Structures are given as C-alpha cells and as structure tokens.
Amino acid sequence: MVGYELGKTVTEHGSVARGVCITDGKGHLTGIDERTRIETYPGGIHYTEDGESWVDLAPETTVSMNFWGYTPSFLQELEARFPAFLDKALAENPIKGEFYLPLAVEQLIEEKKATVKVLTSPDKWYGVTYAADKPTVVAALRRMTDEGKYPDGLWK
C-alpha cells in the first residue's frame, strides 16, 4: 500500500473519508481506522464520528488513498466477503453502503491471512471530491505537464 500524509490529501471544500494507518514501526500495516468525516479547520485537521465531538489529527498522519497492490488471493477474499456486506448494506442503508477496501484488508490482517507493507509517498494527492476542487487539480496537472512529469496531451 502507498500511504500519503493526511495534510496532503484533504480539501478545504468539505469533508473526506480516509483510512488512518496504524503500523508496527517496521513499515507493516497492523490496522486502519476508517474515518468518514475528516475536515480542515483554521487550527488544523480533525474528524468526527458523531458530528458533535472532534478529534485532531496531525497533518503527517499516514492515510490510505486506496493505492494498493494485491495478489489474486485478495480478490478471492473480496469475492467471498462481498455477499455478506451487500446483504447488510441493503438492509441497513442501501443509499450509503460502501464496501471499504481498507476494512477488508484490516480483517485479513486480523485473521493472519495477509501482511501489508506500507510505502509512504511525500507527494500531494490530487483528487476531485467536490466541484470546487477541479480548478486546483487542473492547475496541478498543467504545472506537472509543463515540468515534464507528464507528457503533453496525456489528459486529452
């Protein structure tokens, strides 16, 4: 898994969901805390689970952006686990049900069926979570193309 610094993955336009990575100090993932409402505020970055109490997160916190490298056995595990997830999601909240890959990975780690090496990236993550994010992403892609990091015409 490639992990990113939280502060380089958030938007100022609303909340985001991120898997907060827990490692063993040797670069191996031991767990992921899926936080579905992380927001920036004038003093930093925080998350809430209930919409009332907030917990600060350090900008350097390693988070998952679902940039994984999987083996075929992982896909077999997902296929086996998906029906139970779907039954539960359809019964509880069919509009918002989401099969979070980090949660499946965490289950496999807990079951001793998987190990995950966390590679960290110093780069900024660009994404369009909200329409207001688009100009920043377009400008970043233009800048990186001008710098030669991407070939001209790639985004057409």
Q: What is the tally of beta strands?
A: 7
Separation of the first and last Cα atoms: 29 Å
Could you tell me the radius of gyration in angstroms?
A: 17 Å
**Order of strands in the sheet with the most strands?**
5-4-3-2-6-1-7
Mean pLDDT: 94
Class per helix and strand makeup: alpha+beta
Strand content: 25-35%
Would you identify the regions where 5 or more consecutive residues have pLDDT less than 50? none
Characterize the overall form. globular
Figure out the total of helices: 3
Largest sheet: 7 strands, mixed
Q: SSE string, helix = H, strand = E?
A: EEEEEEHHEH
The percent of residues in helical segments reads 25-40%
Q: Which properties best describe this structure?
A:
7 strands; 7-stranded mixed beta sheet; single chain; 156 residues; 3 helices; alpha+beta; globular
Structure description:
It is built from three helices and seven strands. The chain starts with a strand and ends in a 10-residue tail after the last helix. It has 156 residues and is α+β, with helices and mostly antiparallel strands.
Give the arrangement of secondary structure elements.
Blueprint: E1 2-5, E2 16-23, E3 29-41, E4 44-48, E5 54-57, E6 62-64, H1 72-92, H2 101-110, E7 119-121, H3 134-146
Parallel strand pairs: 1-7
Antiparallel strand pairs: 1-6, 2-3, 2-6, 3-4, 4-5
